[in-house]
Structures are given as structure tokens and as C-alpha cells.
Amino acid sequence: AVAMLLTVENALNQMWQVKKNRPFFRRVGLYLLMLVIGPPVLGLSFYLLAVSAGLIGTLPRSLAFLVDLAPLVLGVTAMTSLFYFVPNTTVRLQDAIAGGVMASVAFELGKRGFAMYLVKVPTYKALYGTFAVLPMFLLWVYFSWLVTLLAAMMTANLELGRRRSPARRRASHARAAPT
């Protein structure tokens, strides 16, 4: 888990063009916090998904709507926190929220598409038999990392686009302006 978090932090720092890593003890503290908070949030998300799918009782319509939104809100909060706190640089909250919304919506669409595939296309079981879970898990890990990296790149580019010097902005506008 620590190696994975180190990889995630290094990838985000590269996207934000951070030259210096945070001090060792701050890294360890951040990783421990993520390891303590992450699993319960993930478990809550799965529980809410099961409740919204009707697997755990039925709910009144008004409450069902809120429960349907809860995994999305949890995802936005988690991804926004990832993009805001993990890079060793200052990230604007608006940029982190934009990236968090994009990633969370992609995750929710991916979850629904993945579930639909598993229900409608049972050929993976015929091909892989007992080991059918392994390729599906690997596909989900790949998809999750892809969504996280794309949303992080978008978030970092929002920040880096603002960092461009005013002279470079004027020069690029001058080239684009018709003569």
C-alpha cells in the first residue's frame, strides 16, 4: 500500500512539475492518514451502492435519490482531496474540485458499464472459468488508474495554464490575432 501511495504521489508531482518531494515524516503521515481514512470511505461507498441497487432493503423515493447521489459525492470528495493534498505544491481548490468531479463521474459511469457488462455478457466466465474474477479485477484496476491519471492531468493543466507568464500569454495572443 505504501509503495502504491508513493507511486501515486510521484506521478502527481510529475504532472504538477514539482521538483522537490515533501519531507519523509510528512509523507509517512499523509500515507497513514490515507490508509486509515481510505478503506472506510471505500466500504461506505460500496454499502451505499448496494443500498441504492436495492440489495439491502427498499427506501422511500426521496431517500433513495440521496443514497443514489452519495457514492458520487464520496467520489468527488475523495478525488478532490487526492488532487488537493497529495501534490507537493499549492493546488487551487476549484481546480481540484473540477478534477474530482470529472474523475468521480467517470468512475460512476465505469461502474455502471462494468456491472452491465458482467450481467449481460457472460462469455468471460466461459473463457476463464473459475479465474474469471482475475481479468475483471485487472481490467478494473487499469480503468481506475486511467481515470485517476486523466483527471489529474486535467487538474494539473488548469494550474499550469495559469502559471504561464503574462509575456508568453501576450505573445500567444498576438500570434493568434489577425493582422
Helices and strands in order, then pairings?
Layout: H1 2-15, H2 24-52, H3 61-85, H4 93-120, H5 123-128, H6 133-163, H7 166-176
Helix pairs in contact: 2-3, 3-4, 4-6
What structural keywords apply?
mainly alpha, globular
Plain-language structure description:
By secondary structure, the chain is mostly helical. The protein has 7 helices and no strands. The chain has helices at 2-15, 24-52, 61-85, 93-120, 123-128, 133-163, 166-176. The protein is globular, with a radius of gyration of 20 Å.
Gyration radius (Cα, Å) is 20 Å
Number of strands: 0
In terms of DSSP E residues, the strand content is under 5%
Q: What is the count of DSSP helices, taking H or I runs of 4+ residues?
A: 7
Mean pLDDT: 82
Helix content: over 70%
Largest sheet geometry = none
Quickly give the structural class.
Answer: mainly alpha
Kindly, what is the distance between the CA atoms of the first and last residues, rounded to a whole number of angstroms? 57 Å
- The best one-word shape is globular
Name the poorly predicted regions: none
SSE order, as H and E?
A: HHHHHHH
